[in-house]
Amino acid sequence: MRVFVGRKGRPGNSLENYTRAWRGKHPVYKQQDCIGCQRCFLSCPEGTVYQMDKKKFDVNLDYCKGCGICAHECPVDDIDMVLEEGCETT
Question: CATH no. for residue 69?
């Protein structure tokens, strides 16, 4: 029988772990063509997208990992992924 010993801890998500420092890109909501479909809100794996008004969404950049799923899911291309300051493209 094998016994695995490790650190005691608990899993978390980005709302519990500050992720801004290592992100390469972040979403910018243009707020021009949003149809209020909530795809960005529903598809964010970290729950950092929030609804401001019926057709206005934004993201908590302190905890966003920059995965780009919100921008990919937007049917009207109202979200741009912008390179973080100090990051270079390859």
Answer: 3.30.70.20
Whole-angstrom Cα distance, residue 33 to residue 65? 24
Tell me the pLDDT of the chain (90 aa) as tens digits.
Answer: 555 555 455 555 555 666 666 778 999 999 999 999 999 999 999 999 999 988 899 999 988 999 999 999 999 999 999 998 776 665
In this structure, is residue 58 part of a structural domain?
yes
Of 68, 79, 81, 62, nearest to 14 by C-alpha is: 62
In the chain, the number of structural domains is 1
Q: Is residue 50 part of a domain?
A: yes
